[in-house]
Amino acid sequence: MSAEPLPNDLGPDGLVVGVGASAGGLAAFKTFLANMPADTGMAFILVQHLDPHHRSLLVELLGAAAAIPVLEAADGVAIRENCVFVIPPDATLTIKDGVLKVVSPAPPRELRRPIDTFFSSLAEDCGHKAVGIVLSGVGSDGALGVRKIKERGGLTLAQAESDHVAQVGMPRSAADTGMVDHVVPVDAMPGLLVDHQQHLGAVAEHKDGNGLRKDMGEHLAAITGLLRTGTGHDFSGYKEGTLTRRIQRRMQVLRIDDVLGYVEHLKTDRGELQALFQELLIGVTQFFRDTDAFEALKSTALAPLISSKAAGEPIRIWVPGCATGEEVYSIAVLLSECMTDSHRAQSSDIKIFGTDIDDGAIAIARSGSYRQPVTGVSPERLERWFVKEGNDYRLRPEVRQLCAFSVHSIVKNPPFSRLDLISCRNVLIYLDRELQDRAVQTFHYALNPGGFLALGASERITRHAKHFALVDDKHRIFQRRDKGEILLPFPKSSAAALAPMPLPRPTRVDEDRIDKSVRRVMEQYAPAYFVIDRQHQILRFSGSEARHYLEPSPGVANLNLFSLLQKTLRPAVRAAVEQAFAARKAVVNGDLAIQIDGKSRPLMLIAEPILGNGASNLCVVAFRDTSPLVRAVVPEAAPATDAARTLGLEEELRATKAQLQAATDQLEAYIEDMKSTTEEYQGVTEELQSSNEELETAKEELQSVNEELQTINGELQSKNDAMEHLNSDLKNLLDSTQIATVFLDDALRIKHYTPAMEELFPLRDADRGRPITDVVSQLVYDELRADVQDVQRSLRVVERELDLKGGAASFLMRIRPYRTIHNVIDGVVITFTDITDNKRAQRTRELFIDELQHRTRNLLAVVQSISDATLSAAGSLAGYRAEFNDRIQAIARVQGLLSRRDGALTLRELVQGELAAVGVTPGYERIVVDGPRVTLPHLDMQLLALALHELATNALKHGALKGSRGRIDVRWQMLDPMNTPRLELVWVESGVELDEPEASSFGRGFGRELLELALPYQLDATTKLDLTQDGVRFSAVIPWHDDERREP
Amino acid sequence: MMASSAGVAGRRVLVAEDEYLLASKMVGALAKLGVETLGPVGTVRRALDLVEHGGHLDGAVLDVKLRDGVVYPVAEALRARGVPFVFTTGYNEHAIPDRYKDVARYEKPFDASQVARALFSDAGQAP
């Protein structure tokens, strides 16, 4: 368990969450992410079964659904909190010191268990901060991984189908190991993780540097006491650290912060006692675990075994409950070393069988490939017996081939046999007493006399002391005793195999009653006979007379002649039958006798094969009673002489000898048969085993292919959904865009177009697939084909401005190559942007600028003229400056009024502006400004303003404004507005005290020229200027042409 | 080459300019050279009237933009009669149609006497 901080940004309690998923896992993981708060401080690593030849879309798909960043895992990247890392395709992902390791390519399919691999490294790296989650998927990948995580104190979860029942497939396989803490639905997992993290934070202060709670020691005795009474197993001898760690883990799972609270919970909840017991049973599998025990095994069992065997004699070893095979290979290595030590050639007759009920574990064992570091193996052994393959160490073939692995249960399946050693460490402890007994009986049966049995340190078989002798107490090595009753190891279930055989159906024969009677009578005189086949099964009995010759053997009933015949007859009959079958002719033996009713009666034996169709498979065995035919009364046989008797006896002895010889020969033949049959079976069994291994491998491979296909299918499904959305978006975009767009293929055929195109080309849906050149365009444009070819050749964009026929609209056409996502040119895209308004606006802008230019220059020219005129009239430079400034200001004023945007300039404003410039403000009582509202859109206001300026200036200098009594009336009106509209403007001064009228500035000056010449010239006005004694009178009548526009 | 004042005296020149102050200045400048002014006029209509009915013409100073429109119809009429003319204008060069590219153009504000003299130089000759 790593206590030092990891080189990443995870907090001290930040969980590292490994998620394993396969088929169907994508949706599950999306749900998981959707329910996960974004700021938990945890890091997530998703390991999914992926097709190595297929680019994964996981990152895109998940990125769209997740609130936190989703990245593809890359080699050397440190994990980050609130981040999801996803395994890339064709790679093995592991973690070390908080940094991800990615190794490509992935191992071959049959060895590929990416979830187990990652979880194992996660367990090593993060210890109690590791979390392993097994989501939907087929197969058993992840089952070993959760075991490793749990061994190291991490938390394990599996996806529930419903109500804490694990989903079939990977979650079920993981849950079946008993190593999953919670089986819950995906959406409940985030909550559990958050709680778990909080618990870790809460208990952190109680822990020492090794992650062990300091307050646990005082309660250990109480807990082991509870276990002893509850389960019958004593764990008080276990290492304190191990005990503490395992108890802590249960507390983590239950989220009980207080040790005392947990002890209380143990007392009240029997289920928890079992759970803790299971927790304590978790073994750590590694090579040469408990080195002493292996050394002891080597010296006590293996070395003697090898020396006791002649070369070529088989050595058979069985390791039940081998898990992932470390123990099997450890023994194989030891054995190989012993062979080397004793200078014996590797014998092909060594076989080590590794069995386990967990097929996932067996698959790993079978691969013989282990991730580095391979714990427990010394560097010398690693060098000598392993080959490095990428990140893995694989056992050398010579070791690997000694071992055979299969799925097998010691309580359910028939055992292996003729074994020399059984190593069964820490397996019995999982079994209850009855099963333990049965297992030990099985071992006794399976072992050769003198064979060894190795058990785990805490396992005892004292009840079987008469079957096993203790060889090494400390390391629990036993030897099978030769004596003692033979135990029947067969499992209960196999008793069902001994079902009664079906009886032959009796045949019904319809017979005549007379025939029947006659037969009954004749049976008494005819010889009794049996018809038998080659296997000596009786096919026909002659009748009731036959009963004299029968004496059934005790035991299971059968129809074998030699089981039914009187024992005394059996040898003679056997000899005769064999001879008859061999010679294919009748054999007659007249020297027999039979005891019937306590009397000996002479008997003739006839054995004659029934010859038909060339082959004789049947034989008739008949017995003829050769005693004198006396009905019902059998006279006492005359006592024979001694010599005759001796002769008879000798004869009988000879016959008996011959029969014995025949029986012996046959027995030998049977034994030979049996031997070869056994060998045959053995061969078949081994063959079956290896085909089974092959099938397993093939199945694994198919399973993972299937996984991958399902994953791809899931991905494609998601991608398809996304595509559908995109497609829909695209359709809407195309329908709504105002930019006419058409997609053409290489032959200019229309692939797709937007509705806006219909304005330019009269397109209908039916036109898709037709060359666009077939459709008559509304555009003034003939070079489409040439332009498209140009684009296809040069791959650059062609732009043209085109007008609609009739000039109603202008379009900017762009032809660009159509590049597929894979950057292949497939036709062109033509867009038409309506630029009619743009063009119009641009034109207007150009005109405006021209006009501005024109007016500015005109104005400058006017200023220049005014300057010239003022200069020629002025007496002095000072006078010139004052007058010129006034005039420029008058121009400036009118420019200022013109630039106003809030409506048209009125004549009143113009007049008041000029008056204000000479100090007359509105309301000045001697000034009257009166007239209707007249806007001045069309007139050359500059000239009018200048004229008014001259009038006002003159009034100030010489006229009505000079004295204190002068008045000015400015009035205007529209004349004949209906026909020839004219504006009449009248300026009348009165009460002027003129010293000398000539002193008015209107001599032949600039002002007078403006009023009398410029206004008529420029505005077609009729003007009249009178310089009277009372003051200036000026009137102007200006034509008011609406059509005389100043604008071009 | 600039024509001498002696060479141009007595000639008749049409002045078309809608701005009184500029027109009077042009007229003044021409008068100094002894050139007789026809006009000045501020509209296309009157200018055309003078071209057609005003008698002999030796040249014309035409403001491009007159009160009732552009002066080009007048220019065409002058061309048809082989009368040389110059443009005075506030517009930029690009506003002038291509067919008058070779017509001497004086941008406002201009020196009236220079225009008057230039009218009879080679540069001012109509093609």
Order of helical and strand elements of chain B = HEHEHEEEHEEH
**Percent helix of chain B:** 25-40%
Q: Unreliable runs of chain B, pLDDT <50, ≥5 residues?
A: 1-6, 122-127
**Number of separate helices of chain A:** 26
**What proportion of the residues of chain A form beta strands (DSSP E)?**
15-25%
Structural class of chain A: alpha/beta
Overall, the morphology of chain A is elongated
Largest sheet of chain B: 5 strands, parallel
Alpha-beta classification of chain B: alpha/beta
The mean pLDDT of chain A is 80
What percentage of amino acids of chain B are in beta strands? 15-25%
Instruction: Identify low-pLDDT runs of chain A.
Output: 1-6, 489-509, 631-635, 1043-1048
Largest interface comes to: A-B, 26 and 24 residues
Spatial strand sequence of the major β-sheet of chain B: 2-1-3-6-7
**Silhouette of chain B:** globular
- The percentage helix of chain A is 25-40%
Q: Radius of gyration of chain B over alpha carbons?
A: 13 Å
Evaluate the radius of gyration of chain A: 59 Å
Oligomer: heterodimer
The rounded distance between the terminal residues' Cα atoms of chain B is 16 Å
Q: How would you explain this protein's 3D organization?
A:
- The complex is a heterodimer of chains A (1048) and B (127).
- In chain A, helix 4 crosses helix 5 and helix 7 (217-231) runs parallel beside helix 9.
- In chain A, strands 1, 2, 3, 4, 7, 8, 9 and 10 form an eight-stranded mixed β-sheet that branches. In chain A, strands 16-12-11-17-18-20-19 form a seven-stranded mixed β-sheet, with helices on both faces. In chain A, strands 22-21-25-24-23 form a five-stranded antiparallel β-sheet, covered by helices on one side.
- Mean pLDDT of chain A is 80; it is low at 1-6, 489-509, 631-635 and 1043-1048.
- Chain A has 26 helices and 35 strands.
- In chain A, 40% of the residues lie in helices and 21% in strands.
- Chain A is elongated.
- With 1048 residues, chain A is of the alpha/beta class.
- Chain B is α/β, with parallel strands linked by helices and 127 residues long.
- Helix content of chain B is 35%, strand content 22%.
- Chain B is built from five helices and seven strands, in the order H-E-H-E-H-E-E-E-H-E-E-H.
- Chain B has a five-stranded parallel β-sheet, with helices on both faces. Chain B has a two-stranded antiparallel sheet with strand order 4-5.
- In chain B, strand 1, helix 2 and strand 2 form a beta-alpha-beta unit.
- In chain B, helix 2 (20-32) packs across helix 5 (112-118) and helix 3 runs parallel beside helix 4 (72-81).
- Residues 1-6 and 122-127 of chain B have low confidence and may be disordered.
- The A-B interface holds A 850, 853-858, 860-866, 868-869, 943, 1009-1010, 1013-1014, 1017-1018, 1044, 1046, 1048 and B 18-25, 40, 42, 65, 67-70, 89-92, 95, 107-110.
